[in-house]
Amino acid sequence: MEKLTGKERSPTMEKINDACENWGFFELVNHGISHELMDTVERLTKEHYKKCMEQRFKEMVATKGLEAVQSEIDDLDWESTFFLRHLPVSNISEIPDLEQDHRFISQILFFHSPMKKLAEQLLDLLCENLGLEKGYLKKAFSGSKGPTFGTKVSNYPPCPQPELIKGLRAHTDAGGIILLFQDNKVSGLQLLKEGEWIDVPPMTHSIVINIGDQLEVITNGKYKSVMHHVIAQTDGNRMSIASFYNPGSDAVIYPAPALVDKEEDQQKQVYPKFIFEDYMKLYAGAQVPGQGAAV
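The structure assignment produced for this chain is given below.
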C-alpha cells in the first residue's frame, strides 16, 4: 500500500486492476495494520479454539464417523468456525463462549475497525481504476442502514483423510470485498484459474483480498468473483480470519451505469438488478455452495 503514495502509484494501481480482472485475488503487505495486533489476534484465536471449540469439533467428528470415511464427503467441511457480525447490529451475544473469553473478543472487536477502514480504502481504489466517482462502491453497498460488516473466524484442524474431505468446499463469496488474514505457517487456500487449483501461500502479516459476487455484478463482469476452496491438512491447525464488507440487506445491486455505457452494444448490461437479501437467499439455497454471480 505504501507504493500508492509515490511514483510507483501508477504501476501498482495497474497491478491491482489486473488482479481484479484476471484473478479475483491479490495480496497486500504494508497495509497499515499493526503487526503486533495481527500477532496478538492470531495467538488469541488459536487459544480460543483450544479452550472453547476444539472439544466440540472432536465430538462432531466422532458423531459423524468422519475419521473412518471410505469415500469422498461432499456435503461437509473440515472446519470449526463462527461468524461475528459487527454491522449493522452485532450478534456477539448469540455466539457461545465469546463473552466469557474477554481478551479474545476485545482484540477481535478492536481488529475489525482497521479492517473495515482498509476495506473502504480498497473500494475507493477500485473506483479509481474503474473510472467511477470516489465513494460509488461504498454508496452502492449502503442500503438504508449502511453496509454489513462481519468477521468469520475459522480453524482447520489436522485431518486424517484430506483427500476425502475439504477444509472448505469450492465456492465464490456472495458478498462484496473480503479481507483475509490467514495463518502464516499452515497453507490450504487455493483459487481456481483456467481449470487448475493454484495455492495462495501463507505470507507473514499479509492480507489476502478477494472480489465477491456483488462486485462482479456492479462492475458488469469486469472484475471476477473466483471459485476457491481450502484443502485440509494432515499436520497443523490452520487459522483464518475473514472480514466481509458486504452490501446492506436492502441494498439494490446492479451494474454501474457508467460501466455499462462503456461496453459495446452486444456486451451491454450482463446482470439483472436485485436486492442483496434476495440474492443471499438464492445463494444459501444453492445445492452447490457458491454459484457465483449468476442470478
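Interim note for the steering committee: The CA atoms of residues 4 and 12 lie 7 Å apart. Helices lie at 9-22, 35-64, 102-130, 136-142, 213-218, 257-260, 276-285.
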